[in-house]
Amino acid sequence: MNILILGSGGREHAFAWKIAQSPLCHKLFVAPGNAGTALIATNLPISFNDTEAIALAVQEQKIDLLIVGPEEPLVKGLVDKLRLRKELANLRIVGPDQRGAQLEGSKDFSKQFMQRYGIPTASSRTFTAETLEEGLTYLESHSLPIVLKADGLAAGKGVIISENVAEAKTVLNDMLAGGRFGEAGHKVVIEQFLRGIELSVFVLTDGVNYKILPEAKDYKRIGEEDTGPNTGGMGAVSPVKFATSKFLQKVEEKIVKPTLAGLQQEGIRYQGFIFVGLINVKEEPYVIEYNARMGDPETEVVLPRIQTDFVELMIATADGELDKVQLQVSPQTAVTTVVVSGGYPDAYEKGKSITELATLEDVTAFHAGTKPGFNGHVLTDGGRVLALTALANSLENAVMKSQKAARAVQFEGKYYRKDIGLDLLRYPD
């Protein structure tokens, strides 16, 4: 089978790494890919939003299976556009259509969806530029802290938590009247702040059947002890110590099953991944957000724990036969530490030479923001540069190996959090 993965981040490198292990994979392509995917697949210089170029590549390379990594092409309707093409009638696609992707593409849509189907989430209201004054008045009686979310895609940075009403009013005004977050901020969801500990649960579904993949906890803030601005993710751990079988059973009954039933009720045939961002509030799960794809860097700890042939899972998802495949998961712990460019998540420089990659032991280096340089050198090409994943028999050993690799890799201005997983080591048994 010839397989094409769309995307260029750590998630897509992890997909490629897992797929390359399958005897079902004949030729593997990634568009546009990075320096890491270039080592195990053929990179195609195609934007993941370029429908025409993707359709042409599918035909030229005789692609049998397409996996869409990032959210942007899903929200823009790439899957719908490809399915309308008669010449691509036999192409298997893993990724929801545009209606399904609205679970991530619009916070307002997902909130209304959860309310319709009784899925536990924080209470909220949505405001636009036309109702800005009403929103400002609403904030005056809101409990603190206040969560403000840009409705659309904002690269993981569209959530602001305000500790006082004056700040919240400024943020709301900046988003609705000042253009902060651009089109993504044309609607703003104001919601109740929930106190608890976060984790992510990943669901793979063929539209009817589903598999719950290994859960993960990621670390969103740039600074240690979860300080500073949000990023796309500074590290992740799987499994999650506090996600007991009893808690995960509640997630399945109260969230996963109603979500899939709701999609079917609305006539949405969802074939792909649903990332459920959760918060554990006194052992009860609440949905913070949905994503219409796998998370990054969570994919880099989830996939190493999946023992089932990943291509077999993808085919079953596209063919509506996920019930025929058994999901097997390793009991080992995976930890990934993300090494980023200095200045991230704000301004940062690219093109820095990365050294010591070849010397890493007991870890898999997933490339997130890299590109090939001259004479075999690898250069930085993004804010998040590498996700260094260790798989071990204990959380302590996985943390140690991942952090050792983060110390070893070198490039000018590198930064990484030294506390990834330490909170879970301290978490009571």
UniProtKB/TrEMBL annotation:
Q: Where does this protein act, in terms of pathway?
A: Purine metabolism; IMP biosynthesis via de novo pathway; N(1)-(5-phospho-D-ribosyl)glycinamide from 5-phospho-alpha-D-ribose 1-diphosphate: step 2/2
Molecular functions (GO terms): ATP binding; metal ion binding; phosphoribosylamine-glycine ligase activity
What keywords were assigned to this record? ATP-binding, Ligase, Nucleotide-binding, Purine biosynthesis
InterPro entries to which the protein is assigned, alphabetical: ATP-grasp, ATP_grasp_subdomain_1, PreATP-grasp_dom_sf, PRibGlycinamid_synth_ATP-grasp, PRibGlycinamide_synth, PRibGlycinamide_synth_C-dom, PRibGlycinamide_synth_C_sf, PRibGlycinamide_synth_N
Q: What is its EC number?
A: 6.3.4.13
GO annotation, biological process: 'de novo' IMP biosynthetic process; purine nucleobase biosynthetic process
In this chain the ATP-grasp domain maps to 111-319
User: Which reactions is this enzyme annotated as catalysing?
Assistant: 5-phospho-beta-D-ribosylamine + glycine + ATP = N(1)-(5-phospho-beta-D-ribosyl)glycinamide + ADP + phosphate + H(+)
Supply the enzyme class, top level: ligase
User: Is Nucleotide-binding one of the keywords?
Assistant: yes
Q: Does the keyword ATP-binding apply?
A: yes
Please state which protein family the record places this protein in. Belongs to the GARS family.
Under NCBIfam families, the record lists: purD
> This chain belongs to which protein, by name?
Phosphoribosylamine--glycine ligase
Which species?
Larkinella arboricola
Gene that this sequence comes from: purD
